[in-house]
Amino acid sequence: MNEKIIVPPGNPSDRGEPNDPGGDGIREKLFTIIFGSDTPAGQAFDVFLIIMILLSVTAVMLDTVAGVNARYGEILYVAEWFFTIIFTIEYLVRLWVVKSPKQYATSFFGLVDLLSIIPTYLSLIFTGAQYMLVIRILRILRVFRVLKLARYVGETDALMQALKNSRRKILVFLYTILTLVIVFGALMYLIEGPENGVTSIPRGVYWAIVTLTTVGYGDISPVTPLGQTLASIIMIMGYGIIAVPTGIYAAELSHVIRQARSLHACSSCGAVGHDNDAGFCRKCGERL
């Protein structure tokens, strides 16, 4: 008798469905282990996967340290291929056990899984491509399933909704900033000129961005009194401008939270539309 399939939380397009839930016991068991976290085997698999990801990313980073590379370069090279082969097998098994390989391959986690193994193979053609393997760190997002942090998905949805609602205002703000730095960059080119390091308007725009954001690298600095005055004005403006997108986003987030409360939303999964006297979420069962 086949074991009961434990459907993991999350978007179905990110996990696929079992390839043959009615007849193939091996695929069903593998699907439960790989995509589920409600069984000891599934949790052990996810923990093992996270450990492998952390070790592989650590190996990639250590490989860029000259002293470590000179001494342990061969070991790190072998480790890199070892982890890549493990992740390649895992990716192929994931495609094998799901009902729609194409749906999984084009999902967020499917693309991350693929991008986490491609750089090693590309390194055979393009030198240095293997260092892009640090993208594997994105796979740690699976820790949300292991540590039972699905209740935070509702909070994530609220943050994303607030960002979506404020995108037009932020785009207008960014256009305004772009306009200002172009004007200030052109003015600095006219005031300081090539003799003081501002060799072109794009170079002046770069200086204006660095100054307006209060980064201040110091590679270009005004010398003339007028240039220093302009720089002082831009610096003061920078302190005020930095707070604008934060205020826009905070206002939208506050609006989303108020709206969710008015709709009697679940704090765990974000589901809305509950009756005013409802005590538990109709979707996840969490106490309201």
Q: Care to describe what's here?
A:
The protein is mainly α and 288 residues long. It folds into 2 domains: 12-148, Four Helix Bundle (Hemerythrin (Met), subunit A); 156-262, Helix Hairpins. The protein is 63% helix and 0% strand. It contains 12 helices and no strands. Helix 2 packs across helix 3 (40-63), helix 9 (153-165) packs across helix 12 (225-262) and helix 10 (167-191) packs across helix 11. It is flat, with a radius of gyration of 26 Å. 22% of the residues are buried. The model is unreliable at 1-15 (pLDDT under 50).
Known CATH architecture of the largest domain: Up-down Bundle
* Rg result: 26 Å
Could you please say which CATH topology of the largest domain applies here? Four Helix Bundle (Hemerythrin (Met), subunit A)
Identify the CATH class of the largest domain.
Mainly Alpha
**Average pLDDT:** 80
Strand runs, count: 0
Question: Topology, pairings included?
Answer:
Elements: H1 12-15, H2 25-35, H3 40-63, H4 66-97, H5 101-105, H6 108-115, H7 118-122, H8 143-146, H9 153-165, H10 167-191, H11 201-212, H12 225-262
Helix pairs in contact: 2-3, 2-4, 3-4, 9-12, 10-11, 10-12
Short description:
The chain is an all-alpha fold.
Keywords:
Helix Hairpins, single chain, disordered N terminus, mainly alpha, Four Helix Bundle (Hemerythrin (Met), subunit A), flat, 288 residues, 2 domains
